[in-house]
Amino acid sequence: xxxxxxxxxxxxxxxxxxxxxxxxxxxxxxxxxxxxxxxxxxxxxxxxxxxxxxxxxxxxxxxxxxxxxxxxxxxxxxxxxxxxxxxxxxxxxxxxxxxxxxxxxxxxxxxxxxxxxxxxxxxxxxxxxxxxxxxxxxxxxxxxxxxxxxxxxxxxxxxxxxxxxxxxxxxxxxxxxxxxxxxxxxxxxxxxxxxxxxxxxxxxxxxxxxxxxxxxxxxxxxxxxxxxxxxxxxxxxxxxxxxxxxxxxxxxxxxxxxxxxxxxxxxxxxxxxxxxxxxxxxxxxxxxxxxxxxxxxxxxxxxxxxxxxxxxxxxxxxxxxxxxxx
Length: 326
Fold this sequence. Notes:
- Belongs to the EXO70 family.
- Keywords: Exocytosis, Protein transport, Transport.
- The protein has 326 residues and is mainly α.
- Among the domains are: 1-110; 218-324, Monooxygenase (Up-down Bundle), CATH 1.20.1280.
- Helix content is 73%, strand content 0%.
- It contains twelve helices and no strands.
- It has helices spanning 2-8, 13-39, 49-67, 72-110, 121-133, 137-145, 154-163, 179-234, 244-262, 270-294, 306-313, 320-324.
- Helix 3 runs antiparallel to helix 4 (72-110), helix 5 (121-133) runs antiparallel to helix 7 and helix 8 (179-234) packs antiparallel against helix 9.
């Protein structure tokens, strides 16, 4: 600018050149900022997804304001560069989302058979990712919806990520365990995990998404009661004619075995714990009570009354702490 002022050598030269000069400075500064944003597009780790979303959001909100500072070719240049970088950031974000889904899916595939029934670390990781993405939901939904992929929203992402664990079988610790033990652990594990996701993400993803997850929890609660406790109830329906006292004795022995196999299982969520207890009680105590009413002479030969069965079932799912407190 000094050379230009010297060339013009007139008192009004600065006024004539200042707008062009400041516009050039502004353009260079803006292009440097856009280059900084462009550098983010080379990041591929899904662990940085939050930062890329933040950059996309900041640039998309600022772009219109930046254009107000320019006219003509300068405005066109900044507009084209901004759109180009936003498109690259969006592509990076969609790639990171796919990488996140793959990480959880691969983590499930590489996990040895799950033997516990609590909330799995992968489930906690998936939920943490969803919780961190939730503040950017509008931006993420817009980007994913424009990608044409199966995952078109944060809700889709949540369902896909946390649903991966449902493909994993749950095997009991004992290789000689019965099918009932295997099935009960399977359903209890998935009830725990699906409920954890539901309670963590419902405030973020809304009622429609939550309704689908609630049905999954309910299905596994019912599946648990059927897998573990239906064989106990079946003892009340013997083939042929057997003395009622022997039927009840067999039922009581089966109940004790089932109870002992479940005594150390833990369900931390109080609402889920109550739902499981109700499902078991409705199946076991109800059937037992009906049987006793049809055989009133058994009253003095009972190991358990119907009320005592209900009391024992009300102690389930407290975990090992309940065992220590006995």
